[in-house]
């Protein structure tokens, strides 16, 4: 499972190639901060929309290997299956998959416990999306005890976060899911 519902404001639209376009969607949080999220969509689906329009996106989070500055990395973005006019702000994500990377737990700002990991979600047979997750507090402590390969279902919000990269020596933006709920699932049987 990989399901995403976003409601927000189109900031800009860029034609990616003949069939796909990319746009930035600004989705407000309750705190007043706005997440700016990259969205890939079939060009014909966005032809009637412009920057400044409020829209609802139904889709999923996808990942893709890219090379930037001679470094391979995974780019994370929204793939929009549908788009419609709307108002207000929504950011809801649900997924099921296996924890494939679990980083060490650490204390973030304001002495909050944080755990970062990667969720592997099957897209199609033998193709996977790798989605960065962030767990907080007690959930972070629980998940830090899970072995790699644990099958989980999660709910949360897809967010953008700026940080300073010591490697690139510049500000970068990370796209990740801030998990609000999770549940360990029974291991899927191999057939």
Task: Please describe what this structure looks like.
The chain is built from two helices and eleven strands. About 25% of the residues are buried. It is globular, with a radius of gyration of 17 Å. The longest helix is centred in the C-terminal third of the chain and has 8 residues, at about 135-145. The model has no long low-confidence stretch (mean pLDDT about 90). It has helices spanning about 45, 135-145; strands at about 1-15, 20-30, 35-40, 55-70, 70-85, 90-100, 105, 115-125, 125-135, 150-165, 170-185. Strands 1, 2, 3, 4, 5, 6, 7, 8, 9, 10 and 11 form an eleven-stranded mixed beta sheet that branches. β7 and β8 form a beta hairpin. It is mainly beta and about 190 residues long.
Keywords:
6% helix, 2 helices, 191 residues, 11-stranded mixed beta sheet, mainly beta
How far apart the termini lie comes to 19 Å
The helix/strand order is EEEHEEEEEEHEE
Number of β-strand runs: 11
Average pLDDT, all residues: 88
């Amino acid at each position: 499972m990989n399901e995403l519902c976003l409601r927000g404001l189109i900031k800009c639209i860029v034609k990616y190639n003949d069939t796909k376009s990319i746009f930035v969607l600004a989705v407000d949080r309750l705190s007043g901060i706005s997440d700016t999220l990259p969205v890939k969509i079939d060009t014909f689906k966005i032809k009637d929309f412009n920057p400044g329009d409020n829209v609802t996106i139904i889709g999923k989070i996808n990942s893709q290997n890219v090379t930037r500055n001679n470094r391979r990395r995974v780019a994370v973005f929204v793939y929009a299956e549908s788009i419609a006019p709307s108002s207000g702000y929504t950011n809801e994500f649900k997924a099921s998959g296996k924890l494939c990377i679990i980083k060490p737990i650490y204390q973030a700002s304001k002495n909050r416990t944080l755990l970062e990991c990667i969720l592997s979600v099957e897209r199609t047979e033998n193709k996977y999306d790798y989605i960065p997750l962030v767990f907080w507090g007690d959930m972070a402590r629980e998940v830090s005890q899970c072995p790699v390969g644990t099958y989980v279902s999660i709910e949360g919000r897809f967010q953008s976060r700026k940080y300073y990269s010591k490697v690139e020596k510049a500000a970068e933006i990370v796209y990740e899911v801030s998990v609000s709920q999770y549940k360990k699932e029974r291991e899927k049987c191999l057939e």
